[in-house]
Amino acid sequence: MTLQEEDHENTIQTLCRERKLNRAVEVLFHSIPSPSHHTYISLLRACTNLKSLSHTHHVHAYYHLYSCNNRALYLLIGSYLIVALAKCGALSDAFHISHGLPSFHRSVFSWTSIISACVDHGHGHEALRMYGFMLEDGFQPNGFTYASLFKACGMIGDLSQGMRLHADAHVEGILSYEDLFVCNSLLSMYGKCGGLADAWTVFNRIIVGRDCIAWNAIIAAYAQNGDDQMALHLFKQMEKDAVKPDGVTYLNVLLVCSYTGSLEDAHGYFDSMVRDHAIEPNPRHYACMIDLLGRAGLVNKAIAMLDNVPSRLNSSFWHTILGACQKWVNVRLGKFAFEKAIQLDNTNMTAYICMANIYKASGMHECAKSIEIMRLNNIAPK
């Protein structure tokens, strides 16, 4: 390698550290005919961190163009390419490349990356299938693998598989109740799968100080399984233990209020979140409040709160308003919400059904028919 090529490699690695991936790939394509594995690894790490699938494909293509005969190089960068593809959502490509490498160049790291990426992209069943391949390949999971597997089980509601994995982790000596990362995933899995007794056991076995994530998981477990009183009791206990709540904590609490219709309590928690903890409400916090206001008949206030939502509104907010207008037979605000909803998405059937029902409940049957005609013209699915 010439001194000039070494300078270009150093430039690429610096650009990658500075997250300037476009420029780094540009330098690669125009300046270095045979990059070292250090340069490829820097690029692929940057692709992973920025979740840039297009740049990952560019780097992979460059290897095939200029380094495809260098099998040793491919073995060195293979696991980084697998991780980049998996994290960017190209799971089948990652799996294909993984199986193209000799087994001694695959690793717990590369398999865990694929499993974790499956979970990150909502493919719980696929994550468990990849785990089966990992075991067949002769690799044993580590704590990071188990954390992803517990998330997968929670995602698909597979309590029996989650319990088997819990037992395996315990037998293999991997599960430590001092390891909050794994324990919090385990706790969350039991909560999502309805295993409240097991969730409570895990929560109480956490030896090191329970963090906000652990408290959020146990509060969510009881909230999701209908024990609203216990969920709120745990929130108060969390405050007594001087653990600072975050936005997820307050979302769980507001969801409990939404389930129980406790508008006054929800207002108190919402105000406390902003005033006492300087937590900026996100759209899901606002969605809970808007739902409660609408169900209480305060539709004007619900619409006014939409102005505070810190992102572009989607049609689901207006569907919530429409649902409230249907409950209270409010034609005027219903028409307003309907127009807003179909401006955002005129193919969603919910808006048409709600508006037609509002008209029917008001005895305005011709108007209800006009909504049906509009639905058919906009080809909304029946």
Structural notes for this entry:
Helix 5 runs antiparallel to helix 6. The chain is an all-alpha fold and 382 residues long. It contains 22 helices and no strands. The N and C termini lie far apart (65 Å). Among the domains are: 91 residues; 103 residues.
Low-confidence stretches: none
The shape is: globular
The whole-angstrom Rg is 26 Å
What fraction strand? under 5%
Task: Provide the structure class.
Answer: mainly alpha
Tally of DSSP β-strands: 0
> What oligomeric state do these chains adopt?
single chain
- Largest beta-sheet characterization: none
Query: What's the rounded overall pLDDT mean?
Result: 91
| C-alpha termini separation | 65 Å
Q: How many DSSP H or I helices?
A: 22
Helicity range of the residues?
over 70%
Query: What is the helix/strand order?
Result: HHHHHHHHHHHHHHHHHHHHHH
Q: What's the short version?
A:
The chain is mainly alpha-helical. Helix content is 75%, strand content 0%.
